[in-house]
Write a structure and sequence with these properties.
This protein is mainly alpha-helical and 323 residues long. It is built from ten helices and nine strands. The strands form four sheets. The protein has a three-stranded mixed beta sheet. It has a two-stranded antiparallel sheet with strand order 1-2. It has a two-stranded antiparallel ribbon with strand order 3-4.
Length: 323
């Protein structure tokens, strides 16, 4: 059976698009339903019907339209099934999880080979301050150095410990796949990176006002943005905690808001980026509201999948949106 390039549904009657070369199910066979690059040519008869035999056709200004168009097409990233970037379409959740794992491994290697610590009566200190400073310059977003633009992104994938990356990874793995399927990999990528950057910058802005120079790292802001999107799209979405306890996602979201608000006022755990969490969640809620009328979502989510396969109860349903 053939798999649809958009929703990954297996179909016995695939449709092959002559414009982009993709293979699609009945729902996504039309060019406008799979973001076909050929849509850009529908308003131009030459673009639709040009046979390619005469490359000398010019406009009134003397420019060669077919040549210009072919040049622009070559410059565009190829996200079709045959292109290199096509492998990322529908898989950005896994790409981000892999980047998180690779970055965390790089952090541990750096500390193992270049940073030394020792126990003192007041706690643990480093005996290699230059290496420790370099570590933070690479992996963490620092209130004292917001101009280190690369750390806006590296800090999203870096984490402070095993439990930190595991918790964020679980949230992104289960909820991220759903959001990516419905808004498309391109918009999911922008949501993930954009919310992660803004959450981190929001956190260090508050910390700078407070005089706190502790570094910030982690994908929690992006993870909370993903949850915010789902909360708006389907507030009654049932999440089966531990495969047993059903809880609506709106209740889980409200609980997280309460925990982080209490944390800001000093009644929560220390070392938690509460502002980053709330900024990420706010971005997700705003974005979810923006696309709410365009998206359909399942009414329940069971960690580990559910009966009926993709699209069935507990399954991921069908993907929406272009790459």
């Amino acid at each position: 059976m053939t798999t649809c390039d958009v929703c990954s549904t297996q179909t016995n009657m695939p449709y092959h698009c002559k414009h982009c070369g993709g293979t699609f199910c009945a729902e996504h066979r039309l060019p406008e339903n799979h973001d076909c690059p050929g849509l850009e040519d529908w308003g131009d008869p030459e673009g639709v019907f040009d046979s390619g035999f005469d490359e000398s056709v010019t406009t009134g200004s003397g420019s060669t339209t077919s040549s210009s168009r072919s040049t622009l097409d070559r410059l565009k990233p190829d996200t079709g099934p045959g292109g290199v970037l096509g492998y990322f379409r529908g898989n950005m959740t896994y790409v981000f999880l892999i980047l998180m794992a690779v970055t965390f491994f790089a952090q541990e290697l750096f500390k193992a080979f270049f940073v030394e610590f020792k126990q003192v009566p007041g706690g643990i200190i480093t005996t290699t301050p230059e290496a420790w400073d370099l570590y933070h310059t690479i992996f963490t977003l620092q209130p004292g150095n917001p101009e280190y633009v690369w750390t806006w992104f590296t800090s999203i994938f870096a984490h402070g410990g095993v439990s930190h990356i595991v918790v964020n990874g679980i949230v992104i793995f289960f909820f991220g796949r759903l959001v990516e399927q419905y808004i498309g990999s391109r918009d999911f990528t922008l949501l993930f990176l954009g919310s992660g950057v803004l959450a981190g910058l929001g956190q260090i802005a508050i910390m700078s006002i407070q005089g706190n120079l502790a570094p910030v790292l982690g994908a929690s802001g992006a993870a909370l943005a993903i949850m915010g999107v789902l909360t708006v799209l389907n507030p009654d979405l049932r999440v089966y905690l531990y495969f047993i306890f059903p809880i609506p996602i709106w209740m889980l979201t409200i609980g997280l808001v309460a925990i982080n608000v209490l944390g800001i006022f000093g009644t929560g755990g220390q070392g938690v980026a509460n502002v980053a969490h709330l900024v990420g969640l706010a971005i997700g809620l705003i974005y979810g509201r923006r696309v709410q009328s365009q998206i359909r979502v399942p009414n329940q989510l069971q960690f580990g999948g559910g009966p009926g396969g993709p699209g069935g109860p507990g399954g991921p349903g069908r993907r929406r949106g272009p790459f």
